[in-house]
Amino acid sequence: MHGEFQEKRALVTGASSGIGRATALLLAHRGCEVVGVGRNEAALETLRDEAAGASGSVVTVVADLTDAEARAELVASHADPQSELQVLVNAAGIIATGGVEETRLEDFDHMMDLNVRVVFDLTQRCVAALRKGRGAVVNVSSVTGTRAFPGVFSYCVSKAAVDQMTRCMALDLAGAGVRVNAVNPGVVKTNLHRNGGMDERSYAAFLAKGSATHPLGRVGEPEEVAELIAFLASDRAGWITGECVAIDGGRAQTCAR
């Protein structure tokens, strides 16, 4: 697997933390030229430093992807229609608590904007470059895309949309030789929930609860999800498209009890 992405180019969103960061590093260590996109400039600088000894490379871009102009500039600079792109990883995303009664319309719209609309628009803008590179798209979804959970209404809806978008994109782009898949993680140790407003004490309790809610007895690590993303983006998965692959310690197999 070492060097399997040699002379390949990847665009990874959400690269300043969590699954996106782990994926950018892994691809770089396997020879890929990675463009890592995120909002946290300091975290992106750290990512670039850690990738300095890799066989590939990481170029970082500070951008708020909910800004259409930022998306246009990103693609124009790193995935324009005349270039080749072999990998697109849509890992940027947010979470927020609240059931159907508590969720304000503006909060719902914000969730759908970053988690769904950005994934659609960025992928669409990259299609020409992906077509030239016979590329692969991997969307980062969630176990909440396949199972309903209380108290995270808009997040569940957004990830269900990502799953269906993945399947539809896969069919639409198959003729161009572009594969589209998704990963559906359970709880993973990232900053997602902290960024969603969870304090440190609540987050520690949330992770501890994962030992009971995930049949394998623990929550996941970003690097484990990155390994699955790298596989789906690689030639080893050349006959896989339209799949939403669970990586959740068995969480999606459980029921309320």
Question: How do the strands and helices of this protein lay out in sequence?
Answer:
Blueprint (H helix, E strand, L loop, with lengths): L8 E5 L4 H12 L3 E6 L2 H10 L6 E6 L5 H11 L8 E4 L14 H29 L2 E5 L12 H21 L5 E7 L6 H4 L4 H14 L8 H12 L10 E4 L10
Helix pairs in contact: 1-8, 4-5
Describe the protein's architecture and organization:
This protein has about 260 residues and is an alpha/beta fold. The protein has a single domain, classed as 3-Layer(aba) Sandwich (Rossmann fold). The protein contains eight helices and seven strands; from the N terminus they run E-H-E-H-E-H-E-H-E-H-E-H-H-H-E. It has helices at about 20-30, 40-50, 70-80, 105-135, 155-175, 190-195, 200-215, 220-235, and strands spanning about 10-15, 35-40, 55-60, 85-90, 135-140, 180-185, 245. It starts with 8 loop residues before the first strand and ends in a 10-residue tail after the last strand. The relative contact order is 0.15. The model has no long low-confidence stretch (mean pLDDT about 95).
